[in-house]
Amino acid sequence: MLYVYILKCSDNSYYTGITNEPEVRLLQHNNGINSKAYTYTRRPLEMLYCSGFTDYNDAVL
User: Fold this and answer.
1) Is the pLDDT of residue 13 over 90?
2) What's the CA gap between 40 and 38, in Å, rounded?
3) What angle do CA 59, 5, 18 make, to 5 degrees?
4) Confidence at residue 29, expressed as pLDDT on a 0 to 100 scale
């Protein structure tokens, strides 16, 4: 299962991503694992939307 998610950043911008573990991915974003990531300087982040897809093509289109 793949999940498309939308995060709201602390600067009121939005970030969209795809993952197979949305809760883990949100923690990774909020922990700031990658200092070059868009979300790194925009923490904390809040998950506004998350929807699951069984087909990869459906998730990315």
Assistant:
1) yes
2) 6
3) 50
4) 97
Percent above pLDDT 90 for the chain: 93
Q: Please write down the HEC assignment for all residues of the chain.
A: CEEEEEEECCCCCEEEEEECCHHHHHHHHHHCCCCCCCCHHHCCCEEEEEEEECCHHHHHC
Q: Which amino acid is at 16?
A: T
Rounded CA separation 48/36 (Å): 23
Structure tokens that stand for 21 in this block: 């573990």
Going by their DSSP bridges, the two strands 46-53 and 2-8 should be labelled as: antiparallel
| pLDDT, tens digit (0-9, with 9 covering 90-100), for 43-54 | 999 999 999 999
Pairing of the two strands 46-53 and 14-19: unpaired
